[in-house]
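Tokens as discussed.
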């Protein structure tokens, strides 16, 4: 009544319900959203307390100077603007130290008589000690021809020209060699205060980067024998 070999109810090898290697839900290397080097909003250079737009001028060319007390260079400048502040053009050697050959003493070239100057109040008075305007914490002034009349008091000159620096090194003196002449054409604009223990020298607030003034062919643009703004220093000091 029953068959000799009945059928098998279940398969010998049932199928696997899940895959052997399921897929990865997230990518292996997700992209980075922020940039690696974000741009900087601030400038890399520090603004200057006083500056000129050019690094070289011809003799007699207008020289515009811009100043701003928002960027002081020393404690005196941090006091803010005063009515007796002024800007002078000086040889680059002013404000630096040098060694006196005879005594080996170290001295500083003080800020005394400038080549030419302008009151920062920009209201020109008749008297060289006066400044009829209000104190200004920032602005621009131009050295140009003609300069204000107060420059006639003292050894001030416009146009500013290069000058001879005459001197000898200690070795040249020992060998009784003659003075050697060089020509200085390096200048800077300096913001000063009509103040100090004994003026001149005056109190420096800040100074501009150096610039050059080249000589010209006209009579008032020739190389000068000396500058009243700088001493005659030995070469190599």
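Sequence:
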């Amino acid at each position: 009544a029953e068959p000799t070999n009945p059928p098998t109810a279940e398969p010998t090898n049932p199928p696997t319900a899940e895959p052997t290697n399921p897929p990865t839900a997230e990518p292996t290397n997700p992209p980075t959203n922020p940039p690696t080097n974000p741009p900087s909003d601030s400038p890399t250079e520090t603004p200057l307390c006083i500056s000129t737009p050019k690094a070289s001028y011809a003799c007699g060319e207008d020289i515009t100077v811009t100043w701003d007390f928002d960027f002081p260079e020393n404690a005196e400048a941090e006091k803010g603007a005063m009515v007796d502040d002024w800007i002078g053009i000086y040889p680059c050697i002013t404000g630096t130290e040098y060694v006196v050959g005879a005594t080996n003493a170290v001295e500083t070239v003080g800020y005394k008589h400038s080549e030419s100057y302008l009151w920062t109040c920009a209201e020109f008075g008749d008297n060289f000690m006066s400044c009829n305007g209000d104190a200004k914490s920032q602005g621009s002034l131009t050295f140009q021809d003609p300069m204000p009349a107060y420059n006639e008091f003292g050894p001030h000159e416009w146009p500013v020209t290069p000058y001879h620096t005459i001197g000898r090194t200690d070795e040249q003196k020992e060998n009784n060699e003659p003075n050697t002449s060089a020509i200085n054409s390096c200048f800077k604009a300096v913001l000063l205060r009509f103040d100090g223990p004994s003026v001149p020298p005056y109190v420096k607030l800040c100074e501009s980067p150096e610039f050059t003034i080249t000589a010209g062919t006209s009579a008032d643009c020739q190389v000068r024998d000396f500058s009243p703004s700088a001493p005659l220093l030995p070469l190599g000091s």
